[in-house]
Specification:
The protein is built from 3 helices and 5 strands. By secondary structure, it is α+β, with helices and mostly antiparallel strands. The protein has a 5-stranded antiparallel β-sheet with strand order 1-2-3-4-5. The longest helix is centred in the first third of the chain and has 14 residues. The protein is globular.
């Protein structure tokens, strides 16, 4: 499930666009679980505790359905195989991806 507590406006906008696109394919129950949005955390190897990174993840909740979008430092990135690549067109590119993620 998504955790939108404290999400920046840009993250909410992309999340909502992706939810709307998923509803074009599925009923509301499946559509709402298809999108995964949450603050990112990473394990601190010294304390073995998970700590927030300040980044946000927006992506598909189904394994193998493509890259996640990462909102990092106010800039959108693609994440695939642990590598982040900045989106050329920024927020508009993230919105465009969200609007067609499930429908192509």
């Amino acid at each position: 499930m998504s955790d939108l507590t404290g999400a920046p406006d840009q993250v909410l906008e992309v999340h909502n666009a992706m939810i709307n696109n998923s509803r074009e394919n599925w009923d509301d129950d499946l559509a709402d679980t298809a999108v995964y949005t949450r603050p990112e955390d990473r394990r601190n190897h010294e304390t073995n505790e998970y700590e927030p990174t300040g980044n946000w993840i927006v992506g598909c909740n189904f394994e193998g359905w493509g890259s996640s979008m990462i909102f990092k430092g106010g800039v959108w990135h693609y994440r695939s195989h642990g590598v982040d690549k900045e989106m050329t067109a920024g927020h508009e590119e993230a919105l465009g991806n969200a609007r067609c993620f499930f429908t192509g």
